[in-house]
Structures are given as C-alpha cells and as structure tokens.
Amino acid sequence: MPLRKYTEFLPIIFNTILALSVLYAPQPLLPVLSHEFGISREAAAALTTVTFIPLALAPLAYGYLLETVSPIRVLKITVPLLAVTELCFAGTSSFALLMTIRLIQGLLVPAILTSLMTYLSERSSADTIQRTMAIYIAATIFGGFIGRATSGLISNLFGWRFSFLILAITLCIGFWTLFRLPEASGIKTTRPQPKALLEVLGRPAFLPIYLSIFCLFMVFSAVMNFLPFRLTELSNQANELRIGLMYSGYMMGIVTSLGAPKIISWVNSELKAIRIGLFCLGLTLIGLASNQIGLLFGMMFLFCGSMFLVHATASGLINQLAGSEHRGLTNGLYVAFYYAGGSIGSFVPGIIYRHCGWNGFLIALAIICGISYFCINKARLTTNNP
Fold first, then answer.
1. What pLDDT is attached to residue 255?
2. What pLDDT was estimated at residue 193?
3. Considering the domain boundaries, does residue 187 fall inside one?
4. pLDDT of 289-347, one tens digit each?
5. Is residue 91 part of a domain?
6. Cα 372 to Cα 279: distance, rounded to the nearest angstrom
7. Taking the CA of residue 257 as centre, how many other CA atoms within 13 Å lie in the half-sphere pointing to its CB?
8. For the chain, what is the domain count?
9. For 15, 158, 191, 337, which has the most beta carbons within 10 A of its beta carbon?
10. Average pLDDT over residues 254-258
11. Does residue 127 lie within any of the structural domains?
C-alpha cells in the first residue's frame, strides 16, 4: 500500500489513540483515587472492571449494527459523547458517579473500536490487511501508553481532574478530524441475521483464536491494573508520575506490532508467531516476581512486546480468514472476547493478590497464559497454517 494511502488513515489512528487513552487514563491514578475517595484498592480497580464489562458484551451488538450502518456514522455519534463523559468525570466528587461514567464509557469505547477496525479492514485489500491491522494495533498501544503516562504527569503537576479535562478537549479535536474521512466503499450493508454469529464462530480456527485472545488480555489486564499497587508496596516514592512511567514498556509493543508482518515472514506462519509471543509472555511473569523496581521496569518492555506481537498477529489473521463476509461481526467478536478477558483480569486476580500475595498472583496468571497457548495449539489442528 502506498504511503499516501496510509496517511488517509491518520484520523482513524488519532481517534484510536484517544479511545485507548480514555480507557486507561485512570489506571496510574488508582492509588490516588483510592485515597481521595476512601476506598479499597479492589474498589478503585473496579473503575477499570466496570468499563471492561460492557466492552465484553457491546461489540456483539455493534458488530451486527456495522453490518447495516456506516462505521463513520457511528464514530460521529460516539466520539463527541465520549468527550462529554470525560468532562463529567473531571467534575464529579462522587465515586458512585465515577463508576457510572466509566460504565457509560464502556458502552461507547467498543462502538468506536469496532467501527475503527471495520473501517480499516474494509479500506484494505487482502495483501495489505495484516500491515494495516498492525498499524492499528500500534495506535492502540501508543494510546494505552500515552493515556497512562500523560494522566500521571498532568495529575502530578495540576491534580487528577485536569487529566480528564484535557482528554475531553482532545476528543473534540478527534471528532473534527472524522469529517476528513471518505466512506468505505467496500462496505456492504445487509440485514444482519442472528445465525451469522454462529457462522463466524463455526469457521475453522476462529473460536480457538478468540479464546486465546480472551486469556491473553486477562493476563495483561491483571498485571497492568495491579502493578501500581505493587509499586506502592515496594517503594514509598511511587507517585502518579513514576507509576505512569512504568508503563513505558508499552512502546516496545509498537515495535513488535509493526514488526509482526516481518516476524510472520521469518517463521512462515501466523500461528507460530502467536505461540512465540505467548511463550515469551509466560517467561516475563517469572521476571515480574522480582522486588527490584529497575528489573520490573525492564521486564515490562518484554511483557508488552510479547503481548502486542500476539494481538497484532491475531487481529490481522482473523480479518484475513474472514474474507469479505461479516467483517463487522468478526471484529465485534474479537473485541468482545478481548475485553471479556480484560474485565475478569482487571478484578478477579486482585482477590488472589490479596490472599496469596504477588507471587501467587503471578502463578495464577502463568496458568492462564498456558491455557492461551493450548488454545492456539488447537487452532493449529483446524487450519492450514503449519
């Protein structure tokens, strides 16, 4: 695909970054919010969980919707609504209201992400879909990092409310950029049929890949959500800025996601690339058992790099396998399984952490990582990929 074609996707990339920033901006601030509102760390972590729950369910509805409605039309409605929720988040003094706002965001963000993925897949050819989806995943990674890092920085300088005020303003800019996007001419609007869901899940390799992604993001979400509390255990100097910078490993995810097509070419198989990523992810859980903050900082680069190699490869593969049929539903299911794992991973491992400590927490995550690897091996039995 020519460079000019990729530059057409800049509004999509920008809005992808913003959507992920909204999703993860509260994460490095969880200890601060826990203290300000006088709540436990599990209750503070629920600010992530309550957003992931609708993220796990709503994409199915949006997948059906995108079989009929233009993704650009959906984006022009949901992006400004998301800006309004950020303004409300910045101004509230009630934790219950914060939870309600995050629940609403959990309904809006999957509409945005599913629309973005569908638009990109429809604007790409079979030869360029893997590279296009790698760029999309790189944008989600950057959004996850910049959302965490800037919220920590702004909170440290001006207070946590300013982090969300600035996000609201930036989302307004993102909404304006959407008017530069042409409609995706490849989209075929059809009346969605309930049986289409079973058709997608019944395709070879789809369900094993979806289940593997479910487990993958459960592990990733658990580490990302409870890492701030681990850091405050290890050091009394772990403020919002330093916690936010611990997510710098996200940047390695950009390298591996953009490099995913090259890695696939080296190993000659998408499924082999996914297995390599999962194996490396499991190894990093051993390193995360360290009490040395410097080593934890370094391990986060390998951890994030491994995770996003799997994510970029799997999302591109699932769109390749989908062909031209039911792309909205295919991507909706992908997002649903992904965030279903995230919703569980953002809360349940915290119970293990409380009762079994950090090492018990990591052992549980290693088992889940092994299940993800097992699912991909099952995919190998039902697909032509070696």
1. 87
2. 57
3. no
4. 988 888 888 898 999 999 989 988 888 888 777 665 666 677 778 878 888 888 888 88
5. yes
6. 10
7. 25
8. 1
9. 15
10. 85
11. yes
Residue 250 above 70 pLDDT?
yes
Q: How far apart are CA 38 and CA 44, in angstroms?
A: 9
Domain of 144 in residue numbering reads as 3-181+192-381
Query: Of 68, 111, 333, which is closest to residue 200 (Cα–Cα)?
Result: 333
Total Cβ atoms within 10 A of residue 176: 12
**Any residues with CB less than 8 A from the CB of 20 and at least 6 apart, and which?**
139, 140, 141, 142, 143, 144, 147
The CA-CA-CA angle for residues 296, 300, 303, to 5°, reads 130
Hey, what are 122's tokens?
Answer: 């429809």
Contact 223, 365 (CB under 8 A): yes
The DSSP annotation for 251-293 comes to HHHHHHHHTHHHHHHHHT-HHHHHHHHHHHHHHHHHHTT-S-H
pLDDT score for 385: 40
CATH code at position 107: 1.20.1250.20
Mean of per-residue pLDDT scores for the chain: 81
Question: What are the C-alpha distances in Å from 193 to residues 110, 118, 198, 200?
Answer: 21, 18, 10, 12
What sections of the chain are H helices per DSSP? 3-7, 10-24, 30-37, 41-65, 71-91, 95-122, 129-158, 160-177, 195-201, 206-234, 240-245, 250-258, 260-267, 270-287, 293-322, 327-345, 348-381
pLDDT at position 109 is: 87
If you average pLDDT over residues 247-260, what whole number do you get? 83
Instruction: Considering only CA atoms, give the Rg of the chain.
Output: 20
Angle 264-268-271 from CA coordinates, rounded to 5°: 65
Q: Report the distance separating Cα 12 and Cα 117, nearest Å.
A: 9
For the ranges 5-14, 195-204, 223-232, 355-364, the lowest mean pLDDT is seen at 195-204
The CA distances from residue 332 to 43, 216, 339, 351, in Å, are: 29, 17, 11, 29
- The verdict on residue 386 lying in a domain is no
- Do residues 16 and 146 touch, judged by C-beta distance below 8 A? no
Give the torsion sign (CA, 241, 222, 272, 199). negative
Pair 168, 305: CB distance under 8 Å = no
The predicted pLDDT at position 384 comes to 40
Higher confidence at residue 190 or residue 337? 337
